[in-house]
Amino acid sequence: MKHLFSLFILIVLFASLAQAQNNSSWRVGFGIDAGIATSDAFKYALGGDIRIQKNINQRVSGTLTTGFSHFFEKDHFDGYSQYGSPYNVIPVKLGVKYFVGDNLYLGGEAGAGFAFEQWGTSFVWSPSVGMAFKNGIDLSLKYEDYTKDKATKAMGLRLAYGFGARSMAAHKKAENNADESGTEIGISFNPGVDINSSDNKIIGGDVTIYQPVTNNLVAMFSAGYTHMNSQYLSTYGIMDSNGNVYYNNNLTVRNVVPVKVGLRAFLGDVFYIGGEAGVAFASHKNTSFVYTPSLGFKLRNGLDIGVKYDNYSHRLIQDALSLKLGYHFKL
Predict the structure, then answer these.
(1) Which of 267, 279, 329 is nearest to 304 (CA)?
(2) Which residues pair with 205 in a beta bridge?
(3) CB 45 within 8 A of CB 71
(4) Could you tell me where the beta strands, DSSP code E, fall in 176-282?
(5) In DSSP terms, which residues pair with 247 in a beta bridge?
(6) Domain check: are 107 and 25 in the same one?
(7) Maximum CA pair distance of the chain?
(8) Which candidate among 79, 193, 243, 246 keeps its CA 20 to 30 Å from the CA of 272?
(9) Total domain count, the chain
(10) Which residue among 147, 167, 187 closes a domain?
(11) Which of 5-9, 26-30, 284-288, 303-307 has the highest mean predicted lDDT (pLDDT)?
């Protein structure tokens, strides 16, 4: 999907800009956002963001934030026929954080939300209250209001990891692994939803082998299993040379076995962005190409927490947005 590729391009661009700064008052942070929509048209929202922060003085910081958010529709917009598609948006916001203590802060952001399909561009504003800790963790409660439509508003939590621009050097965990045990094996549980319908719940899991390549780069090989809770009738038409249209009806696939290889790049000590590609094996010979961008946090205690998006080339396999809840073991 174009908006996901745009997000990763923005991540690399802003990370490079922040790394080029020599002033330690510059910080860069990466966050995962999960919330509940305040309108009956949508259920909840999920997304990720990147934030550049400039400390103005001991209590005030300026921020620039961008990312991607997806609002999941409720009951296929039953009672809201004016909405024809989910709300996918890339916000770009300027803001201020005011620290009322060593950790507690009040925040406010405003800017533009660049949405897709019927939604267009909207003004967005977002007040927040949060806690920023010395270890880089930033946890906040926020309200986000895209003002163009009364349905596109949400209350949510933001879990982020931030670090000074100078910290974007060697990924210490990968460096230690390369010097000590090297390869790791990870096991994860991946609950999620169909990207086109939040009513279709998805349960999956995978086993992944991780091999450090450089201090900041890790190679991956994974195999897993994904179960779609619901099936849908997929209909498409084919037109012959005489202008006649023939329709083909099939049920979507429920069980998929993806096998993928990929890379994970660490921008700092625990935050990563990743990408995988491979083959997904499904019933009735519905084999598909699959690619999976991801972002998350690999913590020192072995926990791996992130978000991933599985895109399948086969029309009968539903694309999925999932959480990744995993644990790594040293080999």
Answers:
(1) 329
(2) 189, 225
(3) yes
(4) 184-194, 197-212, 217-228, 233-239, 245-251, 255-266, 271-282
(5) 237
(6) yes
(7) 74
(8) 193
(9) 2
(10) 167
(11) 303-307
Q: Which residue, 303, 285, 305, 282, is CA-closest to 295?
A: 305
Residue with tokens 């069980």: 255
CA 47 to chain centre: 5
Q: Which of 150, 167, 184 is the last residue of a domain?
A: 167
Task: Mark whether 193 and 155 lie in a shared domain.
Answer: no
Residues 137 and 218 in one domain: no
Residues 6+ apart with CB under 8 A from 160: 29, 30, 31, 32, 49, 51, 137, 138, 139, 140
User: pTM of this prediction?
Assistant: 0.56
Token reading at 116: 């897709």
Q: What is the pLDDT of residues 94-125, one digit of tens each?
A: 999 999 988 899 999 999 998 877 788 899 99
Strand 255-266 versus strand 303-312 pairing type: unpaired
Please give the Cα distance from 219 to 39 (Å, whole number): 42
Nearest CA to 305 out of 9, 31, 64, 120 is that of: 31
Which residues share a beta bridge with 98? Answer: 60, 106
Give the start-end residues of each E strand in 38-86: 42-55, 60-73
Domain containing residue 84: CATH number: 2.40.160.20
The DSSP element (H or E) to which 87 belongs, if any, is strand 87-99
Residues 17 and 39 in one domain: yes
